[in-house]
Amino acid sequence: MAEAEPIVPPRRRNRKKKGPNKDEVVLRSRVITLADNEALPDVELDARVLPAIRKCLEFLNKPSSLKEEGLFRVPGNQRVVQEIYHQLEQGEEVNFNTILEASNVCGLLKRVLREEELPIDPVTARRLLKAIDRSHSHAQRLRRVRRTLAVVSYMRLSILQLLTLTFRKIIATPGNLMNASNLTTAVGPTIFPTLPILKTGVVLEFLVVYYVDVFTSEVIDIVKSIQPQLAPSDSSQAAPTSSADGKTSTSSPRLQRLLALLGEAGEAEEGAEGEAPDADYQGEDDVDYNAMYSDMHPEEPAMTVRSF
């Protein structure tokens, strides 16, 4: 009787571990220095920005504050933060020079941003994550991020831009031991509360590292010039009209400038080889920019009456 052949287990293939994406390596290894920030212009905050946010950012941009170790990562005194926030709610004047701990100002700033749902609304946050996570190249990723930010109100955009610039200054200042990764991980959930917590730092870190390529003068100029037309409260500007086929009219020079950057809604763009067309990325959020602005920012005219 023939002996049964021994069962030989299948050989395991030595699969090579997939390394990180090239862009991710650049992102994580990028060191921001003082020289990188020297040529960057100051950010002009919109007039509607709450004074509390303005004062917090002015305090944190002082050289003495930037040198504090562990900014935004070391928690402030919650009792002090609560007292200051209560004073602001009551309309009392707060002397920020008497707040000796920069960590308390960081805690106050995070508290105000959470309470006011600033600077980024849920729709924009989702679009930013989609732009960064689902693009096929760095150039396409930057293009989509700029398109997303170009329809954010200038109030929100100016806060986001100054926050991002402040983070760059913190990272570049010797002595505070903060880098792009741990700083944005600590602050990301405050700025993007509706995103998965593990993704918030990824989105914010991209904005911080590629600040110069994201917050271009072209994007800022478009936001400043187009929003009086898009804002529903501005009756002095003619709103975009729709034709019989439902497409938005592009007769306005301002709207033409916006669409030149963003691309016509629903229209495929010629991408580089291997890239998905940006029309695939746009989807339902890009059908009508005028309606999109109205849906995203219905509360902003009322925010001008806030005392702090």
Tell me what the structure shows.
By secondary structure, the protein is mostly helical. The protein contains 16 helices and no strands. The radius of gyration is 23 Å and the shape is globular. The model is unreliable at 229-251, 263-273 and 279-308 (pLDDT under 50).
Summary tags:
16 helices; 53% helix; single chain; 308 residues; mainly alpha
Quick overview of this protein structure:
Helices cover 53% and strands 0% of the residues.
Describe the SSE topology:
Blueprint: H1 22-29, H2 34-38, H3 51-60, H4 63-66, H5 78-89, H6 102-116, H7 122-133, H8 138-149, H9 154-172, H10 180-191, H11 197-209, H12 211-214, H13 217-230, H14 253-262, H15 278-282, H16 289-296
Helix pairs in contact: 3-6, 5-6, 7-8, 9-11, 10-11, 13-14
How many H/I helical runs?
16
Oligomer: single chain
Report the span from N to C terminus: 94 Å
| Average pLDDT number | 76
Helix content: 40-55%
> Which percent band covers the strand fraction?
under 5%
Low-confidence stretches: 229-251, 263-273, 279-308
What general outline do the C-alpha atoms trace?
Answer: globular
